[in-house]
Amino acid sequence: MTFTNRLTTVTQDEILPSAVDTILGDNFISFRFLSNANKWSGEQLKRPLKYQKSTLGGSFSGLDTHSTSTVETRVMMAYDVRGYEMPVAIPGLEKAVNRTPAQVINLVSIEVESAQEDALDDIGTMLYADGTGNSSKDFLGLDALDDDGTSVGTLGGLSRTTYTTLQGTRTASGGTLDLDKMATLTSAVSAGSALRQRPTFFVSDETVQDLYESLLTPTQRASYEAAGMPVVTRRSRAPIRGAELAGVAGYTALIYRGIPWVADEKSTSQTLWGLNENYLQWYGLNDPDLKAISLGKGEIEGVYSEAPSESVGFQWTGFMRPINQYGEVAHIYLLGNFVSWNPKRQGRLTGITGV
C-alpha cells in the first residue's frame, strides 16, 4: 500500500539490524579446503615424487652377477605462492553519520564482512579454474590440478607429457550420466580397494547431482527419506547423520560406493569431480605484519555466515588513513596456493547433460 505524506511525514521506517545476502551462492570447495589449511614455508613448496619404478630387479641363482647400476625414479615438484587482495574503503563522512544515535547496523562491520564474503566468492571461482586468470596470478584450481593435460600441460614445473603419472582422469560422458560411467571414473582414480587411494568425495553443481539422484532405486530414495540425508562437515571426511551434528555447520550429501557427493554452486557446469583430499590441499602463507581476520557470522545472513571462522593465509591490514583523503582504507589478503601432489588420484566426468 502507498501511504500519503499525512502518514509518512510523521512515521519512522524500521531498518532490521542485519542484512540478507541474496546474490552469493554456495561455495563448498573453499570452505572445505580453507578450513583444513596447511602452512606454507619457503620460497616454493617442494616435494619429491616417484614417477617410475626401478627396472634393475630380477631373479638369480648361484653366483650370477648382480647389477650395480642406478635408475632415476624421483623428480622434484614445486609450487609457487600466489596472492589475492580485496580493498575496503570507508568515507569519513559516512562513518561519522553512522556513529550517531540513529545507527542500526555498524557501517564498518558490515562493509568489512561484505568484502570478506565477496573475496571468498572470488576465491571459490578460482578454485575451479586453471590458475591462468589475471596473467596467471590466480590461485591454481581444479581445472589444473585435476587434469590430463587437456587444459594445463605443466603442473608444479613438470610436464604431464614427460611425467605421465601427473595426468588425472578426464573423461567425456557423451552427454549422459549413468552408474557404469561413475564406476569407471571411480576405479580409474583409485588403487584397488586401498581406502586412502580412492576419492574422499564427489562434487558437482546441483543440476548434475539431481541427475544422479534420479538414478537411485526407489529403495535407496526411501532410505534417504526415512533416515535423513547424510551430512558432510568442513573437516570430517566420513558422512554423518544430520541429527548428530550438534550445531556444527554441514552440507547435505548423497552417497555413491560409500563416498559422499556434495553439491556446490561454484562447480563447473556439466561436470562431476572425483577428488582425493589426501593429495589435494590448500597451503596458506601468514604474514607476521598482517592481522588475523575473523570470518563467518556477523551482520549479514547468508551462505557465508557459515564460513570458516579463520584460515591460514587469510589476513588483513586493519584500517589506515590516507594522507590526502577523509576516510579509511583496509586490504584483505589471502596468500598461498591450491596444490595436488598426486593428480593421478583425481578425476572428472565432463559434458553431463542428462541420464
Percent strand equals: 25-35%
Query: Helices and strands, in N-to-C order?
Result: HEHEEEEHHHHEEEHEHHEEEEEEEEEEE
Low-confidence stretches: none
Computed CA radius of gyration, to the nearest angstrom: 25 Å
Largest sheet: 8 strands, mixed
Number of domains: 1
Helix content: 10-25%
Total DSSP helices: 9
SSE class: alpha+beta
Beta strand count:
20
In which order are the strands of the major sheet placed? 8-20-14-9-13-12-10-11
First and last CA, distance: 48 Å
How does the overall form come out from the CA principal axes? globular
**Quick check: average pLDDT?**
87
Describe this structure in words.
The protein has an 8-stranded mixed beta sheet. Strands 2, 5, 15, 16, 18 and 19 form a 6-stranded mixed beta sheet that branches. It has a two-stranded parallel ribbon with strand order 1-17. It has 355 residues and is an alpha+beta fold. Strand 10 and strand 11 form a beta hairpin. The chain has helices at residues 5-8, 28-35, 92-98, 107-126, 133-136, 142-145, 179-188, 206-215, 218-227; strands at 19-20, 38-39, 44-50, 74-80, 82-91, 154-155, 158-159, 169-172, 201-204, 230-233, 240-241, 250-256, 259-263, 272-275, 280-284, 291-292, 300-301, 314-316, 327-340, 347-350. 22% of the residues lie in helices and 26% in strands.
Task: Sum up the structure in keywords.
355 residues, alpha+beta, 26% strand, globular
Which helices and strands, and how do they pair?
Blueprint lengths: L4 H4 L10 E2 L7 H8 L2 E2 L4 E7 L23 E7 L1 E10 H7 L8 H20 L6 H4 L5 H4 L8 E2 L2 E2 L9 E4 L6 H10 L12 E4 L1 H10 L2 H10 L2 E4 L6 E2 L8 E7 L2 E5 L8 E4 L4 E5 L6 E2 L7 E2 L12 E3 L10 E14 L6 E4 L5
Parallel strand pairs: 1-17, 2-15, 8-20, 9-13
Antiparallel strand pairs: 3-4, 5-19, 6-7, 9-14, 10-11, 10-12, 12-13, 14-20, 15-19, 16-18, 18-19
